[in-house]
């Protein structure tokens, strides 16, 4: 697959769900520019400036809403009011960064929802990988949203994010309209989806440019990710959905999707208890949810918060599942796993 030389500042946004709030929000948004935002390259990944974040308003305890800290981690010394992040910005298409009212109303910094401090990082055990790419796809018929949050496996710090809305290729325009209204209309983000969604093949081309920019993968090698791995909450995303979407999009399954970490298996083996999903993990770990459940970027952030907490608790997070390239058979590496 040829790489599209496209910049990818990964970002996140979230639009309020109420009609009144949504109308007010739309009054702040003007058509986005088709030019992409340049991605910052870093000579030392851990010092990368944060430039992405999003989440939908949700009822959080006051301190969590104001500070966005991971439960159990020391709180920041200064408080800030929680605010949603611009979803146009997460995709490199916000044209309102010079609008003071817009910048005041919406968050444009993902690290604000994923804070880490030195005392928590000191508890992290040596990891076999250097980076985790937390992924949580949305879309049952075809993939509608492809959000990834990259964190440092040793410091737990946010490094970057990649976020794209995905336009189905095997559905009629009427079906797409109904699909999106049912899926994203309730969150008030159907407009941004229609404004920004691109076909899955284009999403992967931009994603390959993104992971290539971080030196996590080289196309010519045809190998797995370099010192990094996807983290998913379950096997569905990479065992089932991505291969299905590749068939619909008539493309070969890329080599970087051949192995991943099922966080449910790590959770089971580390805490010695089963978790049916992200919400169960967050409830048991007393981590307040940020944003809207089933909005991909928000779920990805919340799963990242679980990963951060587990690292701070001393978990070693490693590959749990691997696909055989010749047969496409999937091998589960943990004897004790969620079935």
Overview of this structure, please?
With 339 residues, the protein is an alpha/beta fold. It has a single domain (19-37, 45-332), classed as Nucleotidyltransferase, domain 5 (2-Layer Sandwich), CATH 3.30.420. It has helices at 19-28, 62-67, 87-90, 100-105, 118-121, 173-184, 190-196, 200-213, 236-249, 263-271, 278-284, 296-312, and strands at residues 131-135, 145-152, 158-167, 198-199, 228-232, 259-262, 321-323, 330-332. The protein has an eight-stranded mixed beta sheet with strand order 4-3-2-1-5-6-7-8, sandwiched between helices. A hairpin with a 6-residue loop joins β7 (321-323) and β8 (330-332). The two termini are 34 Å apart.
Query: Could you list the spans in which at least 5 consecutive residues all have pLDDT below 50?
Result: 1-78
- Strand fraction band? 5-15%
What integer value in Å does the Rg equal? 19 Å
Placed side by side, the strands forming the largest sheet appear as 4-3-2-1-5-6-7-8
Query: What can be said about the biggest beta sheet?
Result: 8 strands, mixed
Euclidean distance between termini CA atoms: 34 Å
Count every helix, treating DSSP H or I runs of 4 or more residues as helices: 12
